Structures are given as structure tokens and as C-alpha cells.
Known about the structure:
Number of strands: 51
Organism: Buteo japonicus
Strand order of the largest sheet: 42-43-44-45-46-33-34-35-50-49-48-47
Keywords: Glycoprotein, Protease inhibitor, Proteoglycan, Secreted, Serine protease inhibitor, Signal
Distance between the termini: 55 Å
Helix content: 10-25%
Structural class: alpha+beta
Number of helices: 13
Largest sheet: 12 strands, mixed
Main location: secreted
Shape: globular
Subcellular location: Secreted
Family: Belongs to the ITIH family.
Radius of gyration: 29 Å
Amino acid sequence: GILAPFFFFFSFFNLQVVNGIEIYSMKIDSKITSRFAHNVITSRAVNRGNVHKEVFFDVELPKTAFITNFSMTIDGVTYPGTIKEKEVAKKQYEKAVSKGQTAGLVKASGRKTEKFTVSVNIEAASKVTFELTYEELLKRQFGKYEMFIKVKPKQLVKDFEIEVNIFEPQGITELEAEGTFITNDLQNIIKKTFSDKKGHISFRPTLDQQRTCANCSQSVLDGDFTVRYDVKRTAPDDLQIVNGYFVHFFAPTNLPKLPKNVIFVIDISGSMSGREIQQTREALLKILDDIKEDDFFNFILFGSEVQTWKETLIKATPENLDEARKFVRGIDTAGMTNLHGGIMRGIDMLNAAHERNLVHKRSASIIIMLTDGQPNVGISNTQEIQEHVKKAIEGKYPLYNLGFGYGVDYSFLEKMALENKGLARRIYPDSDAALQLQGFYDEVSNPMLTDIELNYPENEISDLTKNSFKHFYDGSEIVVAGRFIDNNQNHLTVDVRGEGANDALSYTTQQDAQQTDKAFQEQEYIFGDYIERLWAYLTIEQLLEKRIAATGEEKENLTAKALDLSLKYKFVTPLTSMVVTKPEDYNNQDGIADKPIEGTMMSASLAKLTSSSFAFTVDGDPHFIISVPQKEDAICFNINENPGAVLNLINDPVTGITVNGELIGDKRANSDAKIQNTYFGKLGIANKHLDLKLTVTPEKITIQNGNEKTGFTWLDSVTLQQEGLTLIINRKKNLVLSMGSSASFVIVLHQVWKKHPLHQDFLGLYTLESDKLSEQTHGLLGQFFHPIDFTILEIHPGSDPKKPDATMIVKNNELTVTRGWQKDYRRDPKHGVDIPCWFVHNNGAGLIDGVHTDYIVSSLF
């Protein structure tokens, strides 16, 4: 909808010179027609060596884009990518996997980007040309369309060029281009022209202009290149009709702003402590500076309990804003996460304000909720929360859910927002989190219309995209596209309705295809059937969005429609994959390109983690899983030691946190096994600064605070808060623990059949928010709370056809590793979720500091 990410974002590819590979040409050619961008990235390389070499093609794309084509041409022979239904593609791919292929070609790589990577071995003196095409509908924000290009070739390139051609039938009013790396010398190299309907930008530095200094081999091209533009708007509407399809752009200007009623529902649970709550306070103070006097607002805070600033919405007078600032400065964290209580209090308050006429009749109401965790107090079943929220809001106003960090159940937040005419946005736990929060508010801070409907003759139009919208915000744009029943129809009438600050908006507008044809005489700027592809892009995007909140037969129908269009128009979407074939020589292996989905996690490795929020695991026999977010991958290893041994897992002398685990074995030794199975049968977690100790076994949980002891069993359901300690026991499943303001831990209970002749119950440990421990943290797990890097080389078939071997370079050691899977049992204690990882043999030798016996300690505390 209107508030999807408002950027056309392209990050320039990075081809590395390796062993004599020369990259002699890089080019991005972008053609934008009526906001629909068609982009072709081309790179050419030659092998200057005497033997076959590997060359890489590495591209970052906007998450909102769909790849439509890829090919490699090697010495005149083209190897195309083919787009197929995901399941069909994966079956074709299984053969390649058995030969040693271990990863897809597309991964999430940043807040707004996905990385497409492919490599190929080519013969000496051979040339290769890579060509990637993707398409995207540009969305308008703050009155402009923006194209963001990350330029980082990492080398001098003989023929380097960015070229952007824009054609807008309405006419272009402004066009600008800038780069963070642009020096005074490079400023004149950016060529920019626009007149009437056409705009053109090119950037083509020579080799000398690319150098950081006169005789340097380093490139100055390292940073962001941004293009912004907008179009003429003599009327609110622009209708275009081409070959049986139409698109309607709606962006009225000069309307009076609607007063707004906004309720901020803020998570203040213990996990928000420290930087998170500080950044939230900072953002709210900035937002208070922007609230207008006609607006009404309030704050609702939820931890274990729900508290409100005022009992009802109040007007944003200067006096009330001053009082609000004092309240915000005093917001602090406490307790667990009563999300249901907080959001329902906000909805009830907003409903009451409308029923009692406390707010303007012509106003726009919104709820903005910020949370960093999952509900665990009050009603914690997410399906039940969704049902309650939808029933209470009844479609009257949008709900915007902001998920802070990676501990949130993003799919739950997204479903709940979409069901209530809003959207979800992830707030990344970085130094600019306050700016991210404020930036989102800025997008929705200036509503101009509510209840907008764009109605078209039902007997003339089929396959219409979304045509009713709760709010229209200043500086944005509504886009509707459709297909005519009669392919030859060349006329369209639209009935436009909406509610403004002073009165209702109601008028009729129309367009003839001849007017569009007249505008499109500059054929060199047009790429094929762009309006039909725009309609297909928008339809697929909206079908996939509806699918998120759908169930049963409705979800199946939406999936079938989106899949059919994805295949017909050759878009790589979450329902399709592109199989990339390569020459069979030199161990080249086929690859598969899938579309990553926001909110999905690789469980313990959390596919999109940053270094501030690693997830670390020890579970099973005991399997250690180390997330390495820079690689979007994981490393795993086992420790083989005798039952009764106590291993130091985490030791932080600064925060006083220590975690040790005692091993247990099977009920009787297996005489056929070379190595006996062992598991963690007892865990001890202590905070020496608070004189707190927690002992966990498969039978009971004991808390010792000084000389006082408190005990629970796994049959209990407990939420306990006392000074320095928060403990939740989810009956017969797991417990969640935090001590002071340090990291949080999840302990999973594994229960086996009591009469099992061999196995017995055991425990698994999962560490979250490890960034809250100090840099001096060590231990078998703790040493990996600091960033770790590794390189994988020479992937080749191993002893198991489904688990290839490779060489890993880590900590200056060269190790033989095996691609495999370990289990994450947090969500599903019975079956677990498979986590792909590189397995390091021999008790983690070469990966862990020292040897594993260095971590054996005398007792649990």
C-alpha cells in the first residue's frame, strides 16, 4: 500500500579481482517509465591467467524489486536462468545439492536490500558477461521518488557507467543527483538534464578520475549515489491507458491537513532496558516537537502491567506537550510483556474518544505500537490477540506495528497490522534506531484524506488492484491498476471519493487512450508493455500481502493467483525460484535464486541478525550453534566428554554472569558406540553481583537469593519478578530468564518416554541479547559473543552425498568442515527446526580458544 518502503534502492555490484581476473566493464542501465523501473546490470570480465579461474558477480537489490532475468555468456555461449515454481525448482536443484551445492543465490543483506551472488570458473583467456534484470514500482515519499545506488566496485574499472533515463508523461518538475563519495573533481562528471517529460542522468568516471590519488590503484568510488525526482501535478489524477491495461496515479496537492488522533503503545518490558528505551524516549521527544496543536494524543505503556499517561486522549496544547515531555523523560523499563493488555487499552481509549466526541469529527486516527519481544503476560496466544484486536478496531483506523530488533514475532505483528489496514516495520537495533522511529512517524504525521475510494465501471474492468484506502498522507501517492474486459477499450471514467479536513471530496475524471498515445511519442524511453507489467507487479505484491493474513481456502486461492502471474511475467517472488545453470567444467555447480521473506528466521542463526543481537545455542549431544550474521550463516560443533563433567559456557567478570552445565549420559552405555551420547542434565546460572543462583534440572528449578531458596517444578506455570530477576516458566516446555540488565536465556526441557531403555530427559540453552554482556565475556559459548569471521573455500562432495565438505579459514586456522544441520528446539521442543551450519570436527578444535578440556570446571557454581 501507500506506506511500503518508499525507495527505489539499488546497491551497485562488487566484482572482486581474484587470481588474474580483470573486470573491464560495469554498467547499470535504468529506464523508468511512469514510476515503473526496468533495470539491467551488465558486467564483463576476462581471465588473464594461464589456468581456469573463478569470477564472482555480486549484486545488492532492493527488497521490493522482483528479479526477472539473469544470464551468463561465456565465450559466446549463453547460460540463462529459468524461473519456475519454487517446489519444481527445488526438485531440479536437489541433484546439484547432492554434488556439493549448499547455498542459494539470494540472501537478505541489509535493511532494504537483498544480495544476489553467483560465481563461475572460466578457462584461461575466456571472457564472461553477466546480465541481471529486475523491475520495481517506485513509491513516492515526502513528495519525491528516490533511487539510491550503492557504488562500491572495489577496484579501478576501465568502463564504469551508471545511466538513468526517466520518462514521465505528466512532465518532470525537479531532478537531482548526489553522491556521498563525490568530490569537487567528480561533481562535474555527473551529467543531469531534464525537460518536459524526459530526464537523463549519467555518471562515467575515467580510470584517473576513479583513483584516490594520482598514482593510486584504490578506487574513490565507495558510497551512496542518489537520484530524486518528482512530476508535474496540474490535477490530482493521472490516468494512462495502453493495450488493454490502465494505471491511475492519485496524489492531490494543496489540501488542508486533517487533525490526527494518535495513541503510542510502548513496550517497557525488561528487555527494552538500556539503549532501546533510551532511543525510544529520544524518538518520542522529537515526535512531540512535531505534533500540531489540533492533534490529540496519549501514551500507553505495557510491561507486566499497563499504565497510561492520561485517562483519555488530550489536545496537543503547549502546556500538555510540556507535561508529555516530562512524562516521556521518565519512562523506564519494568516487568514482562503484556502486549494484549497494552494494545487493547489503546483501542478502547480511541473508540471511547470517538463515541464521546472528544476528538474532531473530521480527523484521522491511528495507533502506533512499538515492541521488542513476544507476549508472555495476560493473553499470550497470538491468534487470540489478533482476533480481539480486529474485533475491537472494526476497520475504523489503521494499526501500525513497529518491531524493535530480532526478538519479536514479526509475522504476528505483520498479520495483525495488515488485518487492520496498517503495516509492520522492523526497527533495526542500531545507533540510528531513534531516527528510524521518528522517520516512520514522519511518514504518517500528515494525513490529508480518509476513506479514499477510486471507483471504476464494474462492467468495463476486471482484475483491479486495491482501490480503497483508509488514509492518504501528504507527499505520498496512491496507485491503482487494472485490466479492461474489452482489450480494445480506449476510454475510462473514474469516480473519486474521500473525506477531507473541511468537507467530502467527490468528483469524476476521465481519460482517453489517445491522450496517453500522444504523450508516449518518445519511444526510445519506453520498454515494451510497461503498464501491463506494472499491473502484474502491483497485483502480485498485493496478493502476497493479503496471503500473509489469510488462512485455508482463501490462502490457497491467493497463492494460486500470485503464482500464476509470477510465472507468466517471469518474476522471482516468494512463490517462484530461478535456477541458474553453469558449464559442467571445473566443478561449476548450479544455483537457485529465491526471494527472502521479511520476518522469517533461520531460528538460532536468525538469518538477519546483527552483531548486537546474536542467538547462541547449546542443545542435544551437546550441539553448539554459533550464529555469524555477517555471513548470514552459522558454525556448529559438538563437545564429547564424559558424564559428570561440568563445562563453563559463559563467564563475564564485568556483569558477574556465569553459566555452567553438567553433562549426563544415557541410562546405560552403548557398547557399539565409539563415543557415548552426553547431554546437559543440569545448568547453573549465577549473577555474583546480585548473589543470585539458578539451578535447573529436568525435574525442578531452584532459585537461591543469598540464603533464601525457592523451588518450582516443570509442571508449574510461573511468572516471577523480584529485584534483579525475571523468570517465566512455560509449563513442561521452557523457561525464560533474565538477571539484572544483562543477556536473557531460554532453557528448553526435553522429555523422553519414561520407560525408554536408553535415553533420559535433558536441557537445552539458548542465549539472547548477548550484546548486554561485556567484551570480556568468555567460555565455550561466551567467546563467540564477539564478532567472528570465517571464509569457506573448496566446497566438494563429502562422505555423505547430502553433506559436502569444505575448507574453513577461521582464526588463522585451516579446518576441514562439513555442511550439515543441527536442531533448534525453542519453538518446537519435540521435533525442532533444522538449522544449516558448517560443522567443525574434533570438539571444535581450531575454532574455540585453546582445547575443550580448558573449559572443564570443578562444580556448577
